[in-house]
Design brief:
The chain is of the alpha+beta class and 240 residues long. The chain contains 8 helices and 11 strands. It has a 5-stranded mixed β-barrel. Strand 4 (63-64), helix 4 (69-72) and strand 5 form a beta-alpha-beta unit. Helix 1 packs across helix 2 (43-56). The protein is globular, with a radius of gyration of 22 Å. It starts with a strand and ends with a strand.
């Protein structure tokens, strides 16, 4: 079946193919002495070979294609997995992305602040404060132009998430698709992890972070967290 890639990390793909094939193929020649045809080794061709090699040597590649809660129990850090799921980009992440328009709207808002203050300071009480606006910018800048995609399945309560490099995105990340990636983190039911790594969060002591992960976020923050059982991926490809 022909694949339409919505996302393909060609840098990581080259690394995987090189490891499985003991090097990266630059081109391929076919034909006899009279006529030869040279084929360029495209990322799409590399992905097809990687997929075939991973499936033929699942232990070497750590390959697994879980479809149920029982099969997900064998997923661990380092597993290379392929899953059919419903994907989406969380609304908060969309808004904070450069193309989301939130930062532009904040810039326009601040440009109008002097005019708004003419109507009295009480008119500004319900508007975002300087500290709140700076916090939003700090989180947006920490993303560095990256996006986050979440995958959910009807046949399993597991959910998947991964950070994407915007330069490899080829289409809108919405709807049913196949997600391929290497597992970087796994957490169990009853644990919550933020989709956005807040600036300075790594400075919080580990025990305090674990306590925070066991506390269900408030109703207005649930959409910014991923509840376990779940796995974070280094996403390689998303396609249909």
């Amino acid at each position: 079946m022909l694949k339409r890639f919505m996302y393909l990390d060609t840098g990581a793909l080259s690394d995987y193919v090189s490891a499985l094939e003991d090097g990266v193929r630059q081109s391929l020649e076919r034909g006899g002495e009279a006529e030869r045809t040279t084929f360029t080794d495209t990322p799409q061709a590399q992905f097809e070979r990687m997929l075939s090699l991973a499936k033929s040597e699942p232990e070497l590649a750590g390959w697994i294609a879980p479809k149920s809660d029982h099969e997900f129990k064998s997923v661990k850090i380092g597993s290379l997995i392929e899953v059919d799921c419903e994907i989406y980009v969380p609304d908060t992440v969309k808004a904070l992305a450069p193309q989301g328009g939130l930062l532009d709207a904040m810039d326009q808002f601040e440009a109008f602040l002097p005019a708004l203050s003419m109507f009295g300071s009480e008119q500004l009480d319900d508007l975002p404060s300087r500290e709140q606006r700076d916090a939003v910018r700090l989180v947006a800048n920490s993303l560095g132009g990256k996006q986050i995609v979440v995958g959910e399945m009807d046949q399993s309560e597991w959910r998947l998430a991964g950070q994407l490099d915007a330069s490899y995105i080829k289409a809108d990340l919405e709807g049913q698709a196949r997600l391929v990636g290497k597992v970087s983190s796994v957490w169990n039911s009853g644990q919550w992890k933020p989709l956005l790594a807040l600036p300075g969060s790594t400075l919080i002591p580990r025990e305090q972070r674990r306590k925070m992960e066991r506390t269900k976020p408030s109703a207005d923050q649930v959409g910014n967290y991923l509840e376990g059982p779940a796995a974070m991926l280094d996403v390689l490809a998303i396609y249909r």
